[in-house]
Structures are given as C-alpha cells and as structure tokens.
Structures
1.
Amino acid sequence: MVIMKQRLFLSVFIALLMPMAVWADLNVDDTFKVNGIIYKVTSTNPREVQVDWQERKVTGDLDIPSSVTGTDGNSYSVTSIGDVAFYGCAELTSIFIPASVTSIGLNIVGCCNNMTSIKVDNDNNVYDSRNSCNAIILTESNKVIAGYKNSTIPNTITTIGEYNQEIKGKTNVEIIPVSA
C-alpha cells in the first residue's frame, strides 16, 4: 500500500511538472513556428517577434499576422521581418504585411520567382504599397525596399533599395503618375 501511494504521488508530481516544461517562457533570440512560419523573439517586454529566415520553404499566398502565440502560450506582436526572410522561396506567390510591422530587413523577397503580389496594410504608418504597385515602400523617404520584376514604381519614388535587382534595370518597370 505504501509503494502504491508513493507511485501515485510520483505520477501526480510528474504530471504537474510537465506543463511547466512545455510552457517555459521564451527568451530573446528563441525561435518557434506558427502555421509553418518561423518567428524569432526580439523582445520579451513588450512581447515582440520578427519573421525569421524561412529556409526557402514558404509557398503560396502569405498573410503575415499582426500577432502570434508562442510556444509558451503568450501572445507576441509581429513587428519586424528579418533580412532575407523569404529569400529563395520560389513558390511564394503573394505576401501581405500587417500594420504592426515597423521594421523590414534587406532582400526579403529576393529570388521569389513566382511572386505576383506584395501588399502592405493601409493602416501601416511606416510602409505602404501605394497605387497597387506590388512593392514595399518606406513611406517617409519614398524608397522602395522590396519588390519583384513586375512591380510598378510610382513617380513619387526617389530611391530603389540596393537589394532590389529584380526591379533595377528591368524594362517592364513602369513609372506611374500619382493621381491628385
């Protein structure tokens, strides 16, 4: 009887500890996946993550969420997209950037050969994709920071970022007038 009570106690004790191991707090630079997308913790107070390099595995249409739930059960705001996050995702066809994203790294859609659409949420205060241009524009400086070979560049653009070879020198890049 004593051995049975000890085993029962040990079983209950282990069962109570298991959730703590599964729900351990995440730290800065820890990564986790949600719906196949890799996120990296950039801050724990406030809880923020960036979309990390995707190892060329993202396909189809991608709507980046404004927040995700980490493996610790906490909600994290998606505030950035890291350098080369989607580089080489040849089967990625479209991407939507939410208003929560305030930082975008270099060359995030390089070599995404099947890209057909890039859009930024109209409520984003840092970036835009004005005039349905299919590019990401740093609003304050009118600089294209990401695009692809079929992006249409509004005439308000002053600079095309250095890692946008898909745009630079292409004959199908069109300068469109901004309507009043």
2.
Amino acid sequence: MARVPYTPSLAENNVRKGFLEHSVYQRLRDELPDYLRLLFMVAYHTGARRGELTRIQWHQVDFTSNRIALNPGETKNGEPRTLPIYGEMREWLLMAKEVRDLNLPDCPWVFHEKGRRIQTFRKAWSSVYDRAGVPGLLFLSEQDLLDAAAKMERRLQSLGTVLSTVEQKRGEAWGKTGRTLLN
C-alpha cells in the first residue's frame, strides 16, 4: 500500500458534566450498607476505579507514608501507582484494620463482606439514591461516581507539583532572598 486512506474522526461527546457535592456524598455514604461505606469513602477521596479498589489487600496500605500502593497490572493502564490516605479515610481505614485484625485476621482484603472480597455491589448501590434523597442524581453507576472523584485526586496532584516547583526554585534560583520570603 503506497498511502493510507483518509478516515475522518467522529466527534466525541462523553464529557462529564457534574461532580458530587460533599453534602450529597455524606448522605449517600450514610445510606450505604456498612460493608460498602469504606469502599465508597476511599473512591470518593481518591478517584480510583472500582476494580482497582476491590483488589486492594492490607499489605498494600502503608499508614506510615499515608499511601495505598496499587500493583502493576491492576490499574487501567497496567502501571503501578499510589493513592493518598488523608482526612477521614485514615481514621476509617484504621478502624477497619482493627476490626479485621480482631474478627477476620486471615482476610487479606481491605474491602470485604464477612471476609469475602467485594466484587460487585450493583443491587446495594441502586437502592441508595432514593433513600439518600437524591433520586435525580446525575451519576447513574458506581463508575460515574469514581470518575467524578478523580477531580479531588487531580487537585492533590496539582498541589504536589506546585510544592515541588517551589522547592526547586527555592533551592536553585531564588537564592537567599527567596528562601527568606518563603520561610
């Protein structure tokens, strides 16, 4: 073949149009069955996908560095990455670990129901909307909710980039005056 024929691209219209307000998140969280609350909370705060979260085992959770390590091959692009542990997540994860250590010490899963890894929760999730008083919620599936939560993760990454840039400039280009202003 001497040349590749032209193929026009189709326009995509899959832009998300809304994000979950914190007050709605709290109402949904409070209506979920106990075994799904921690999963929902971590999803909301990190933006990780359901499949990534439901595979997390306790040895991947590092309370010292406040990070959850996602293993290679278990993320959408197959690359390893970490999720931050912050705010209410830390307290809830610590409580869940304590309960697990007491009642189900052989269960490796962070998100489980009576020791069995959570894989699907469509039925429990679908009944939450009306009970939480948000029947018109734009997010129709757990994946939509997780995509919306990525907004928070991007904010944290942006903050890390800004702080890293300030540190680089502070040590290299700003000299004594810049260090004095920042301290």
3.
Amino acid sequence: MQGDLFAYGRDKDEGDGRVQMLSAIVVAAAGPRRSRLDNAHGLAASCPWPVSWTSFDSVEIMSDTSRVRLFGNLDGLAATCRLVVDRPAGSRHPRVPQAVYPVDYGYLEGTVAADGGGADVFRGGAAGAGVVGLFVTADRGKRDVEVKVLVDCTVGEIERVRRLLDGVLGIGSLFVPRNGETSAG
C-alpha cells in the first residue's frame, strides 16, 4: 500500500520550525494529494501548541514482506501461548460499565505488552481463522499505546470491536488487516 505520511509535532522552542515532540502521524492513502494534505492539516486545527509539519511523499506503509513477518510472528505467539480470557463476550468493562465486550477479551500468557501485561487479544467465533488483524490503540486517559490482536474474528465482530474501542471507550484505534484490505473475510 502506498500513501502520503504527514507527521506533526510540538515545536517546543516556538519558532525554530523543528519538531521536537511527535504528536501525531496522519496517513492519507487515497485521493488527490492536495486534499489529503488539507485533511491532515484540518486534523491538527485544534492542536493547542505550534505545529510543524513534515511530509514523506509516497512512503510504503507496510511492505508485503513486513506484513508476512508481522503476522507470522503473531501466528507463532497465538499458537504457542495460552489465551487467558478475563472478559468473556457479554461481560462489562471494569471501569466503563456501559461498555460490553462483543467477543472474548484477554491476553496471551507468557507475553509482555507495552503496559506490562500480556499481549491483548480479542477472540471471535470464527474458530480456525487464526490471526485476522490487529488494532493499534492510543488511550489518552491511561496515557498508553497498545496493540490488540484479533483472533478468529469475522468482519462483523471486527466492526463491533471497533465500535467498542472508538465509540464506547473513546480510544483512538487503527485497524491493520492481515491481508492488507479494509476488512477481513
């Protein structure tokens, strides 16, 4: 997949034009270049500090080789680590009671994620499908960034997980499908 990558960040010295703290990366993969840049700048309009921009034209977002390696590694972890389900489908989030898990949620025992716990996993009902994708999330409340692996999930289950993360929990998320498409089969 090819696209334009726009990065913006905080200019701590306020005026030298150098990005010293990365605040966001915006990937625009379709449409005329001018409209992609306008959309990226529009996302930063509410930024409370001076914004500096760097554009990386035609950056390869994820090569086939890196995608195969990433998902091969995830397959290996999913196959060799026990999935501990601590929030079964239908259970409520411990801190956000209106959030109900649409599929099983847990972690891979013996792994380590950014938050110090095990690698997070959503497991759906399509037994045997394996790792179908992942979500990269950014939670400002917890001040963390995490990866949530999707195992045995259908397209509908992926969409329900997305609604849970984005709509109910208010966590920003980016779906990375195994096959480089916008939805899994």
